[in-house]
Every structure is written in structure tokens, then in C-alpha cells.
Amino acid sequence: MSAKAESTHKMKFWPGNVVIAEAAAAAGCNFFAGYPITPSSEIAAHLAAILPKKGGHFIQMEDEIAAMGAVIGASLAGAKALTATSGPGLSLKLENLGFGYIVEAPCVVVNVMRGGPSTGLPTHPAQADIMQARWGTHGDHPTIALVPAFHSEMFLETIRAFNLAEQLRMPVLLLIDEVLGHLSDGMIPPEPGSYEIINRTLADGPPEEYKPYDDSKGDVPPFLPYFAGAQWHTTGLNHDETGFPTTNPELVTRHMQRMMRKVTGNRELIDKIDYFMTEDAEVGIIAFGSTARAAMVAVKKAREKGIKAGLLRPLTIWPFPNRQVKEFADQVKALVVPEFNLGQIVYEVERSIRRDIPIKRVNKVGGVPINPGEILAGIEEVA
Amino acid sequence: MSFDYMPYMRENRLPHMWCPGCGIGVVVKSVIRSFEELGWEPKDIAFVSGIGCTSRAPGYLNVNTLHTTHGRAISFATGIKMHRPDKHVVVISGDGDATAIGGNHLIHAARRNIDITVIVNNNNIYGMTGGQYSPTTPLGAKAATAPYGNLEPSFDLAKLLIGAGASYVARGHVGNGRQLAKFIKDGFAHKGFSFIEVVSNCHTQFGRRNKMADPMNMVKWISDRAVPAKKFDEMTEVEQEKHFPVGVLHHDQSRPEYTETYEKLISKLRAEVSA
Q1: Superfamily per CATH, domain A3-187
Q2: Same fold across A3-187 and A273-382
Q3: Whether the predicted model's global pTM rises above the 0.95 cut
């Protein structure tokens, strides 16, 4: 077989949702619990077919809340667990997601975003759950959310989501939208071995002496699954290093601050940005996910018209890359922030740059994605 | 020789937070006795709960313990059992936790017939939050949120669970610990979804508002109304209203257990892949 024929043979035309399901399996995901919801359902359907073949488990739960609960339960028993949903489903999952943060259970939650609020536009895309991802569950908590834009990227970012969840012992969100979830695009799945798979660090030492929230070795306490002889206690109450509840202000503060430091102290691990034609850019665009695909076309068109435009595209939207956005803003004369909502991430941009330069918002709702022409018009307005 | 509960307990977590005379103690003792009699090792048991007084029980036991969100214990337990079908998974819950906010998980776990035991300490009230009426508060009984008497009819939990598909359903009460321990042990040993309702006393929140502030009075009130299921069936409707049936109310060993069915699917698919 010729090299070309071989690569054609390996080429897959998967919808984004199938890419995520395949990537999850490649990352070692061996447990999925979900509930049917458009436009994410294909992730569940695909994993229902492939997980049992690999010895993993799939279950369709009675509701979204139960799916999140089952995922955390499986994770505590040692599974690499995933759930997938859309905005209304994530709204329901949020209490248990917070439980995942406080007990530090590694897992991945996919949100295939659709129009909202409420039932909104179930079969149409949006990027309107960005602030929900960061602030949805109550109480202070760290957040990691990844926003891939391309099919090959969705594959690798799904694996990265699992790696970060395992490495930092916390839930990680993966946000795509209906366009990416349902669009079939050609990609060659990367060979196993070509990407890194990271599993949670297991505690050494005698299991009977295990402290589930031991912070003596760093901000990420080593893990021991249930049934390994440790008999540890897991609770959604604030707890000390032994896992048992405490209301001691110092211990609660120590626990909360360590939990936050897992993200603030590991930015080099978590941050990921793609810069597109930014070297000499005078008009800066900040966009992510499917909107960034339109923004890349707009950048090229602007340059054809003699406007030096460039795109900063975060692949990690939470924690927000405040420093990198400020540096970018310092380089350009004006910013354009297109997002498929009525204005969410632009507030983070404004907060980051703390400088008075024109910021053109390009916002859209209604289920039809932002097109390159609309972004170009924004660029021309501030150029 | 007296029974030694300590191998299954976290002695350093005592004293417990329950009121003197609380019915939960009888339930926890029965749970521990059953673990011991079945030879279940602490490391092989996951003991899962939600929110409320009863849901504090796992914290005192030296097994793998998970104190989850309000009403959701069974969903977490389902994830554990699916991933580790070889282990023992037990849920303990109160009537508000299991049958109001968690009602959906309860009936669906029963329908799947997944091998989890759910014990509901039914004291007819929300105790921890201050005595609000629950789905099992009797019609007319007083509660913090039913100052003129409860206007809502209550669930018959055993009937609800039989209807939902639980393959082992028993009802005991805190006035008869030995009988209760037998129901719990048989529920643990049963392969499939088992449900044990324990008619229990919250003299602090329920009793105080309903002329039974003394725990012994309230346990007597429970014991006097408990009759064996057979005897209950022979009663007139008027007599039945003053009593409740206890015993193994349903036991069906023919229904396939969910995780066993799933493991068979895995074996079949894996054989096809390697063939």
C-alpha cells in the first residue's frame, strides 16, 4: 500500500462527538454514565458500543444528576470516568460537580453547548455556558475548562482533559458546541503511544495509614481507590487531611486554599494558547472554539485588505489566560472579541488588560454561527 | 459473650452526633452484626449515604465510606458497584433523603435490580433540618412545616419498592432489633436490589410535636402497631389503619441482577473480539 493510500485508509470522518468518545477510550476512560440530551447524545451512544468491548462500563442513568453521581462514585472506586451533556444537563449536574471538586475526584465532564437559557435552542449551537462552567456550582472552587476548535484537537484535548483530571485530582470540563459536536471532518486518529497518558498518583505506604487529603507532599494529595485497604471517608463537608468533617476555620481555610492552588499553582501545565498571525498584529482578535475557526478566516481576509490582524485562541478558557491576553493587548491598537453569546468572555478580557483601548464585541445568538464576514466587519471598524 | 462491634467502627469518631434514644443506633448495630455474620471484610464494603441524620452513619464505620449530596447516594453507589461488581455496596438513608429528593434514584435502582442494599431509616420526619414533614409523615401528624397537621398522604415505601422492581423487600422496626438484623443480613446476602425499611423513632423532631417526646413512648407506639405481614393481611381495613406489616414482604430470586448481566455482555463481546 502506498503512503497516500495508507493515510486515506486511516482517515476517519467522525462527527466531533464521536471524536471525543474515541479519544476518551484512548485516554483509558473505562466508565461512562450519562443521560440523553441533544446535542451530546452521540458521545453516550458511541461509548455504549465500545466501552464493554474494552471491559469498561456504560450506564444510562435516570437523570443528569444521577449520571454525575455515578461518575464520581466510579472515580472514587478507581475508574477513569466521563459524562457528557449540554447546558440544561450541566445545570442539573452542578451540585454534584461541586461535590467532585471538594472531595477531589478526578473525572471529565463534556458540555456540548446549545442555545439557552432553559430549553433554548436544543439543536443549534452557542457558546453561552462559559460563565456557568466557571461559576455555576456554589461556593469557591477551582475550574479547568478546555475549548478545542478542530477535530484532531478535540481528540488530543479530550486526552489532555483526562490527564489534567488525573494529575490534579479534580473534575475537568471540556466545552464544545453543537457545530463541533455534529460536524463530520476528516482526521487521522493519532497512534496510541504518540500521546501521553497520565494516571493519578497513588499513595504509597501502608493503606491503613492513608490520609486522603495529605498536603505534606504538595497540593495534590496522592489517591487510593476504595477497596484498597484504606477505608477512607469521603464527604462533601469541609474536611481535614484525614477526610473527616471539620469546622475549624484554619483547617477549612487551608483545605480551600490548597484546592484553589491546584489550579493557580499549575498554570504552566494547564494554560494552552494558539497564536495565529499575531507577530506583527495591530488588531487583535480573541476567540475560542468554533468561533475561532471563523476568526482565522477573518484574519486572513483582513490581511488581504492590508489590515494586520492576528488571533489569540485559548485552548484552556478556565483558568482564563489573563497575563497572555494582557501581553497581547499591549501589542495591538484594538481588540475584537467575537463570541457566540451576548458577551461573556469579553468581561475577562477587559478585566485582564486594564487599559483603555477599543474593544469591539461581536456577539450573536439565534443558533446561526458567527461567520468570518461578521468578524471582519468588526476588525475593519477598529482598524 | 457480648458482640464486639469495634472491628467495624471508627472508635476515634465517637461520641456520635445522634440524640440519646435515637432509632438510628439500632439500625447501625444491625448493619454491623450482619457484616460480621456474613464475613464481609471492612475493606470490601462501600457504605454510602446522602444528607441527614441517618446519612451520618457511614462516618462511624471503618469501611469505605461515602457521604454524598442530598438524595443522591444511590447514584454514587451505582457508579461504585458498576466499576467494582465484586464488592459489597450498601446505602443508608433517611425517609426524606431517599424518598423525596432521592426518590427517582431509589425506584430506578430497584428497576435495574442492581446488587445494592438500601436501608431506609424511616422516622417520618426531616430530623436534621428541624422537623419538617416528609413523604412518610402520617396524614394529620404535626411537623415544623405542618403546624395544623400534615395535609399530604404518605408513601407506603415497601409497596413502592415492590412496584418498582426491587427483588428483596423487608420491613422491620427499631422495637425489634434481632428481627431487624435478620432482615438486613438477608438483604445483604440477596443477589439483586434489596430494600429494608426500618420504622424508626425521632422523638426529638417528630415525637416532641406529636405527644411522644420520650423515646421509650415512641418506640412503644411503633412496636404496638407492628404486626407480622400475614396477620396484617387478615385484618379488617379499620384494624389495618392502626398497624403496619413487618416481615419479608417480597423475595424474588429469579430476576437477573444488573451487574451480572453487564459482565456477561463484556465477556461475550470480548470473546467475539478475540475470535
Answers
A1: Thiamin diphosphate (ThDP)-binding fold, Pyr/PP domains (3.40.50.970)
A2: yes
A3: yes
